[in-house]
Amino acid sequence: MTTRLGSSPGTGYSILSSLQDLPSPPWPALRSKMEKHLQVIAVLQWVISFLTMGISCTVLLIYMFCTDLWVIAAMYTTWLIFDWNTPKQGGRRSSWVRNWTVWTYFRDYFPIRLIKTHNLLPSRNYIFGYHPHGIFSFGAFCNFGTEATGFSKKFPGIKPSLATLAGNFRMPILRDYLMSGGICPVTRNSIDYLLSQNGTGNAVVIVVGGAAESLDCAPGMNSVTLNNRKGFVRLALQQGSDLVPVYSFGENNVYKQVIFEEGTWCRLAQKRLQKILGFAPCLFHGCGLFSDSWGMVPYNKPITTIVGEPITVPKVEEPTRDMVELYHAMYIKSLRSLFDKYKTRFGLKESDILHIQ
């Protein structure tokens, strides 16, 4: 028996060779594909939630008053009235929500990175100026509205509060969803509360260019709306909060947009609607759900957010115009320096410049 087995010395090698030639199990490829789908769903749920959750929940609440569920609607409305000022008084953030696994899929879709350049002192308060706005400010939300990129580990003792349109906090359910991420209204009362009545270690993140800037965002554009945006500087002086420039490379690359020239009736209509609605009606598109066709899903282009060096700001209750101009100029200089220092590391050329309008 032993001799007969031993008489075929190549048999074992042949079996091993045949096994090696077999196709590898599909599990790694299947898992990778599944993760990609989860990433798309994670991003799309945020886009849809931001665009439709508020109005959908408002309509649903009104409808419930016409059904046998009116008691639930009445109870929620009563609580809503009682809780109306909470967004303006520090909100109601949830560490559990900020650490949801869905945000890691959201982060990995693009992917989004957060880079720290300097330490921030927990004994100070800060105003982060975020640039550029892009269409949905994905970098701002992921970095400061969640813990997906590890903000709290990179900046221990600092609590970020991303400021967005106050109208969002008048919408049932949406307001609670936003507050759970530490998001607050971009109003004077709300920001004053965070910087003066909430202790130290607060960082209010303001997308300085706002809706107007979103009308000029497109792949390859390095333009920010800042020259006439000085209110955040005055606020920093009144509260004695340090200014921190933040720039996100790639924020403008995730959607394509039709940009109308200044003076055309389409551009005028956009600006008019912006003043009425509070946000800009951009004509943009990304890709399809699981294909390269047009759709609402953003293109998976990397977004890298650089948090710059803080500018120390004294507390001046009644800052003069010259003082506001001085710190505004310092901020612009710091933002330009931040852009120029990191631009070649993230796909731009040395000749590319930051256009400030």
UniProtKB/TrEMBL annotation:
Primary localization: cytoplasm
Membrane topology summary:
Multi-pass membrane protein
Alphabetized, the UniProt keywords read:
Acyltransferase, Cytoplasm, Endoplasmic reticulum, Glycerol metabolism, Lipid biosynthesis, Lipid droplet, Lipid metabolism, Membrane, Transferase, Transmembrane, Transmembrane helix
What reaction(s) does this enzyme catalyze? 1-O-(9Z-octadecenyl)-glycerol + (9Z)-octadecenoyl-CoA = 1-O-(9Z-octadecyl)-3-(9Z-octadecenoyl)-glycerol + CoA; 1,2-di-(9Z-octadecenoyl)-sn-glycerol + hexadecanoyl-CoA = 1,2-di-(9Z)-octadecenoyl-3-hexadecanoyl-sn-glycerol + CoA; an acyl-CoA + a 1,2-diacyl-sn-glycerol = a triacyl-sn-glycerol + CoA; 1-(9Z-octadecenoyl)-glycerol + (9Z)-octadecenoyl-CoA = 1,2-di-(9Z-octadecenoyl)-glycerol + CoA
The pathway where this protein functions is: Glycerolipid metabolism; triacylglycerol biosynthesis; Lipid metabolism
One GO BP annotation is: triglyceride biosynthetic process
Against Pfam families, the record matches this protein to:
DAGAT
| Location of the protein in the cell | Cytoplasm, Perinuclear region; Endoplasmic reticulum membrane; Lipid droplet
Q: Which PANTHER family match?
A: DIACYLGLYCEROL O-ACYLTRANSFERASE, DIACYLGLYCEROL O-ACYLTRANSFERASE 2
Family under the similarity heading: Belongs to the diacylglycerol acyltransferase family.
| Protein's UniProt name | Acyltransferase
Q: Which organism is it from?
A: Oncorhynchus tshawytscha (Chinook salmon)
